[in-house]
Design a protein that fits this description.
Chain lengths: ~130, ~450
Amino acid sequence: MNNKINLIIVCLLSLLICASAQAYAEIYVISHSGTTLSESDIKDVFLGSKQFSDSTKLVPVDNSGAQEEFVTSVLKMNARKYSTAWTKKSFRDGINPPAVKSGDTDVLNFVKNTPGAVGYVTSAPSGVNVLKKY
Amino acid sequence: MKLNVRGGVQVYTICLALLVSCIFTVQASAVTDAERIRDLERRLEQSLKVIESLSSRVQQIEGKVGTVETRVQAAEVAVQDAGAPSGPSQADSILSQLTQLHGFADVGYVYSGDRATPADQSRGFTLGSFDIYLTPKLGGNTKALIELIFEYDAAGDIVLDLERLQLGYAFNDLLTLWAGRFHTPFGYWNTGFHHGLQIQTSAIRPVFVDFEDAGGILPVHGNGLWAAGGEKIGSGRATYDLYLTNGSRIKGVTTAGGDGELNANNVSNDNGNYHVGVNAGYEFADALDGLKLGAHWYRGKVNGYDPDDMDLSQSQLHILGAYAYFYDFDWEVIAEYYKFYNKNLTGAVGTGTSWAGFVQVARTIDNFTPYVRLEKADLDQMDNYFNQQASGQSYRKGAAGVKYDLNLKSVIKVELSHTNLVDRTLENYNEIRTQYAIRF
């Protein structure tokens, strides 16, 4: 009986921890190991204003699982403004918005293997540059 | 009914047997429950182990698939950068390029009191334009922007316009060089919105920055070279545009004047005139994030032609202007000012000064964005550049409306406006306009 109660408590605690993690997800903005960027470049890269790091063309990618959190807490925008900003940018300057990857694994693999790639994930990554943790 | 004693004993015996068996069953059940729970716990543990094992296996497989996909993407990037055909992944590349098709479309209803406009053009349901633009991924630093417009003209004939055909090369953030036909980068509105009615708050553009064939007085399209770039300075970003285009001309001018139409000289430069312009701006950050301030300068000779293409006159178009644009979650403010120092180079020579400007303020409350715009053009009618154009007259206009966002990509707008024509003709009229605009 005690085991069952313990199990229930553990389950409830796990749910609470998961819920907290969901509400306050950490965002790690990362770049390819050979790509040097500063923390202040992040917004410019994800809004298309900065397209190069030295001679390397930057390839920003969005993370579908963390996009809302990223847009809100890192870019300080909402979905409507982010979408409109990219439509205007694309319409005026002929550049395309970041491709949207399916999740952390997808983003991490892409950033690790693509020179100039910049992305963001929700858990501590390895093998890439961490530009900033939010 | 009589009860048979023997039969009654048998019944009692059976009942007793049933009762005893029930008791044993309950006891056995209690014992079985405990065993079953232990068994279930054992099975649960086994299942958890199997799930853990499967999860780690799935992660391994996903990792491998992700790595393979990433390698394919990296290989595609490398292949595209090398400018070579992408071989087996060509279908993916074609699909990827097709997805870079974007566009705008709008329909609506207008009721105008403008007596100068034929009734069939000023009242009724309207078809706006169907605008598609492509930003294909060409690989490396090569860029392209191609825009096509389908719309009906005043005569009811469908018109297809090659609105933009820009081929470019991005050297770095400081320099992207474009060649081809583009939206002239003066002020903010012309390149910021142009045919993108869904992304502009108001239903229609300010009159004086309208298209050349729709009442505008500025060369809003150019064919030539355009260098653009930006650099972080302080916390914000400085931007510039520098361009050289074929000189525009005014076609279809009769001796009376006031009926010509500006034309961008797209096919070739038939009069040897070239126009040059520069636009410098600064995008603020931090506390002023969302604000852009800029100034622009434009200069070039413009010739006027009669309906038989005879060269009638030449004037020097010279514009100096400034603009401000602010956009945050709630507010949008746009203000533009153009000062003209034009010079007649033939006929009644001399320099005239004119100006035009507008201010538009919008406030977003949930899905509603009410807005108001005031605009004015004070155009010297002795200036050949203005007096030869059908739309080159001075005016004042006020407009107020509301935009309702159905979702991110579709809006409905209702706009009321009042226009005063103040010199060539004296007229004032009201107009109500509704518009349903989408982007994709």
